[in-house]
Structure formats: structure tokens, C-alpha cells
Amino acid sequence: MKITVKSPVRSRMVPSLLLSAGVLFLIEPACAQTAATTGQAPSAGGDASSAGSGNEGDIIVTARKREESLIQTPVAVSALNAEGLARYAATDLNRIADNMPSLQITRAATGTGALLAIRGVYTQQANPGFESSVSVAIDGVQLSRGYLVQTAFFDQQQVEVLKGPQALFFGKNSPAGVISLKSKGPTSTWEGSAKLGYEFNAKERYLEAAVGGPITPELGIRVALRASQMDGWLQNTSIPMAINPIDAANSPLPGATNNATTPAARAIAGRVTLQYEPSSDFTATLKVMYSNYHDNEISGLNQAVSCNGRDHPTSSGFQDPNADCIPDNRRSSGTYNSAILQNFPIVDEKRFYMQNNNLLASLNLNWKIGDNLNLSATSGGYNLDMSGFGTYDATTYNIFGSANFEKTNIFSQELRLTSSFDAPVNLMFGAYYEHMKMETGTISRGGFGFPVPVDPSFGNASVASVADNFTRGQTVSAFGQVLWDITHDLQFSGGVRYTKENRDADLGFTYINTLMAGTASLLPVGQRLKFPFRDSNFSPEATLTWHPTPEQTLYVSYKTGYKSGGFSTTSVILQSDTQSTLGFGSESAKGGEIGYKAQLFDRRLTFTSALYNYKFSNLQRSSFDVINNKFLVRNAAASRSRGAEFEASFRATDSLTLRGSAAFNKSYYLNYATATCYAGQTLAEGCFVVPGSTAKAQDLTGRVIALAPRFNGTAGFLYDMPLTSGLGLAITGDMRYVSSYRTQDDGVPGSQQAGYAKFNASIRLHEADDKWSFSVIGLNLANKYAILYTTSKPGGDAGDLYGPVERGREVRIEASYRF
User: Fold this and answer.
1) pTM of the full predicted structure?
2) CA-to-CA distance for 204 and 233, rounded, in angstroms?
3) Is 67 in contact with 52 (CB distance < 8 Å)?
């Protein structure tokens, strides 16, 4: 949705770009049964992908940009195929994460729009200048913008999660890992499907449909659509108040109006795929996906979750009696009265809302040159247009309301040439180009004190400022790999990627309410801060792989990763800000893994495992400046992530499959001596004045990194039995356990998520050939309201924390039909 303001805000729609291609190798276990057997993966509720041809029982993945057996490839990958995704209605990244070991994803109200973590490694969400350390590759196009979590990923052929640094095949912003999604393509004969579902607690209804087949012998098509609507699952307890003790202009307080339950959302998404194959030597695949998401508050998942022993959160010293401090299905979020809303400078909606439009196009070309060379080209174009209006106060008083927007355009192009000679040595090399433009902005009312005067020169609006920030970027890289078959069973592979990054920032305001005393320190309208960022990087990797038998693989690898630095695109830009205060450096990773994979007992048992140890340098972290009320990006000097993990799947009988996984992870700071203090932190609690300045800091060296649980594990089963010759019954049950972890780095009291377990189950009555089915699906049956991350609540007392809470219990019914 486009925001139009009643002032000279530049509404340049900044293109930003990101592409990629490929999937680098990664070492983490992924186990599963093939579709030829049960189709089940060891991930909780997951099914292994069998996306290519192979021996019966093989699981085929594309983790090195080629179809390979999971057991024989030196890659750590967890996989879900279409059946596994459908089993628990995993049609977005949050639901996919619930079914993947060591993967955590949650939506954010500001900044990047989401937080994605693999093995406890992540980029914080608070500042839009960040790009995620976990990238998402959609049909070969690699993206790092978090607002993708609101996109529906349906009609998928498979999902692979690659864990650890990805420098060779995924060279753009993936030191933590990659989530690779591949949608279904045209089929050789005309076929289609339809699915109708309903979830009772949020009153969510959804419809999916797909149809595809050959238009001509050379040209195929597939069209897929999804539409959904729900009333919401979070109850807003805010009630009207006659007098606002903090902001008299916002009196009376209306309480919950259009956001009585959140997120009251509607979404529609569609994808068109065209595949042209005039001969066996050439294939062209074009995919165009559009997604529109809308709900009734950009911050609609946030609530106060901890208040340092108090029963209610505070704003400017006033407690909100309508809000508790417990993560649950209740929140307090007051809106503005009609006088403020009427003149708030957004045209489309005079109320809280969230609008997210995504358009993604990918073109994949593959040529076979003779019998031994393959040339591929992947082109990607991505457009994000997001806007929203809400409050970041988490109380009835609503003293930190703002409208936020992001407009991003990305174009990318990758070329890759791979050889397959009948010789000991083969090569792969290629080049990558990306061009990105991004505009982010904030229309703020709170944050600079009260009152907020009405400005007649700005449409009689009562707002404090309008920040409008621009970032441009260009990435050029070249990469190559050599594969050497030392013997029939022993292979060495090594490669390197060179990356050159250029970025430019243009930061400033298009409006400041100069009638407010609190805005005097802001950068004046008409002045802009313009900073360049230039960097380059070599990221090498090497792997030695041994196959003692065709069903066993042992490998050791050295890998590195890289993510570019940039600029904090904050909504609070001070006259005193410089490139050193707003800029941040590039992040890198290096380390290694040892993995073992096997299929045993006549292929009934599939087992994968890995040990890993990585050091991260200049880890990018977000810190909250409580004095100036803004989030800035800083670099922690160094951290380490080490651990062990395994996945296993056992086909006990033709009807029963058992699966499980376990991961032990220790992520901690090796050196972070100047971390931000939390609000109210004293000298006795570790907060000190940095020598030679007036700034305060704490030393987190040796401390465990937030969002990094020490242990997580899954266990589950699938029992699919015939009832009659034409009718079957499938029953699944899965448990996922996550141990305790901190929800923010600064160690503020209350920022601890206790260990928890989630239970999912489903029962599906289906025709033997799956022409039709009827399912009952239960998710999070224990109704656990978990928190992935928190921040200090703006305007709150010391220890007031808030953040998004994961969805509670869901009970769904689904009916599907294939034709």
C-alpha cells in the first residue's frame, strides 16, 4: 500500500534487489523416508523431499544446485516435501519453522519485519537497515527481507533448510543458513487440486486451488491460488478512558476500536508458472508470484510480557490497569481518538492497519552443452510495498504511535557453468550481480515528549516528525569450485566466492514539528546525511567426503560466510549523528563441521548427524538508545557457536514410521565489552561508564547469546493403515521441545523464556490414491504462548518488556480433492 503524506515526503519507490541461485552445502542432519516409502522426514511432522529420481528409498535434495541423494551429499539439510507441509498446514515460514529442528521464526512489528534464526544465529529485527543472516531462496531467487513471513508459501514441492554458513552457492547474506523453497511446476498431464479449511479459535477460513498441464508438447503451465481470512486470536483488553493523563490531546481514549481482536487478517496470493522445453537440452521456467496481506494493526502481535514483578506495564510512570504482564492471548493496545486520526498523515486508512504487497518473478534457463557441460542462468525481480500504522506502547495510553513503510526493489542475475566429464576433476564457476533500492520511513507522533501541538502548516496534523531514508546497493561476485574424485569413494571439493559490496545511504526528515521542544536536536528538514559503504570479501570453503559403502557418508568441511555492513535507517536522526554512529561493519563467519549419514537395516533407518564449530566476527547487533528512543546497529567483536545434532527416521512397518531429532547448541560472546546497558541497570549490575566518554555499557563477554536454546529436540510418528481396499486412515503425532533461552541480549530481569514443549497431531481419512481426503489437525495442543524475542518497552519503567507472542492452540479441519 502506498502512503501519501500531506507534506513534501518523497515517495520514491526504492527498488531493492536480491537474488541468488543455488544452494550451498551445509552440514546438519536431515533424515526422512522417500515418497516411494512413507514420505516421512524425521523433522517434527516433516516429510523428506524426494524431488528427483533415484534408487528406492533415496531422498533427493538440491543443496549443491544439483539433484543428489541426501545420504551421499556432504550437506546438512532438513527437508519437507508437499505431504509433510500439508500434514500440519505449513503454508508460511512460521509454520514451516514449527516443523524443522533448530529453526526459529517470528514476525516483528518494525525494522526488518521478522526474526529468523538457525542454530541460534540470527540478525535482530529492530532496524530496517539490517538484512537477515538467514536468507530465503524462493525458486532460486535469494532474499533477506523479513516481511516475507507474511507471504503464503503454498503449492510447494519441497522446502530445504541448510544450516551454517553458505558462501559458495548462496553467497548473499547467509552466514547463518538458507531456507530454500521450490514451488510445484507443470505436470505432463492436466491435473488439479482444491483444499478448503477452517480453524476454530481464530475463526480462520482458507481456500487453495491449483491446476496445470501441457498447453503444447513443449509448453506447460501451472496456476495456483490461495485466499484466507481470519478474525484474530489476540483479545484487546483496552477500554475507553475519559482522560489521558499523559497526552491530553488524545482524550478521550477510545480503547480498542478496529483492533478488538488481532490479527484480523485477510490475504490472497497467486502464482503462475510457465515451463518451455523445446528439447532435452534446453529448459526455460518462468514463475511470477503475487501476495497481498492485510490486517488491522502493524503491531498487532505485540504485548507486554514481563514487568519486573509488577502486575501492569507502565507508560511515563502511569500503570495500565487493562494490561497484564503475562504472555497469553490478551493484550492492551489503545488507539487514537478521531480528531488525531482524521488528520494523521496517511490517506488510505484512518485507523491502525498493516498492508504488505510482494511481487516476485524468477526466470531459470538451463542449457546442456554437449554431454558434459551445463549452463544455467537465474534472473530474479522482487518488489515489496509495505505500510502500517500502530502503537509501540503496549498500553491503553498509546504514547508511541507511528506509521511505517518500506518500499524495496531488487533485481539479481546469476550465471553458472558446471562440468560433468568422465574424469577425476570437474569444475563449477559463475558470477552474480544484484541491484537494490530501498526506501523506509516513519511518521512518528510519540517519542519526543508531550504535548504534540497541532501544526496548521502540515494539514492540522498532530505528529512529531516524518523520517524518509533511502539506501542503494550493488553487489558483484564471482565464484568457483573444483570437485576431485581422489578415488571411487573419496572426493575433495573446494571453492571460493569473491564479493564486492557498494552501498549508499541518504537519511533525513521531510517534516519536523518545530512547535515541539523535544525535536530541537533533530537534523533539520532540508539537511541530509549521505554516507557511502564499500567492502569486499573472499569466502573459501573445502570438504572431504568418504563413502565407506554406498549407503554411508562421512565428511569434514571448512566453511566461511559473509554479510555486508550498512547503515542504521532510524526514525530518529540527530544533528550530532555521523557515519560512525549510524554505520556498522560487515559480519563474517568461519569454522567447520564433521558429519555422518547412513541408511541401514535394508534402508529402513535413515540417520544423519553433525558436529559444528563456528566463530562469528563483527556480529551485527541492534541496541536500544533509551536516551534518544531509537534502535541502532552495532558490531559485537566476536562470538562462537558450537554444537551437535542428529535426525533419524525408522520405517518400523509398512504402516508405521518413527522419527526424531536432537540438537545441542552453545552460542556465546567471545568478546563484547561495550554492549548497551538495559534501562535502570546499575554499576553493581554491571553497567559502567565507557572510559573517555559519557556513554554507558556492559561487558557481555562469555555470556550466552539470546535466542539460542541449549537443547531442542523432536519426536513423532506416522501411522497410515488401510481401512478397506479403497480407504485409508493416517494418524500423526509430534512433539517439539525447546530448552530455556534469553529473549534479549542485555540480560534485563524477566527476559528469560522457560523451556517448553509443543504438541501437534492430525488424523486424515483418505482415498487410497489420495484423490480426496478429510483431515482434523491440532497444533500447539498444550496452548503454549512462547516468546522468541523481547525489547524494552518504549516509555516503560525499568523491566517493562514486550514482544510478539506465538499463536496458541489451533484446531483445523480440511477437505481436499484432486482431479
Assistant:
1) 0.89
2) 9
3) yes
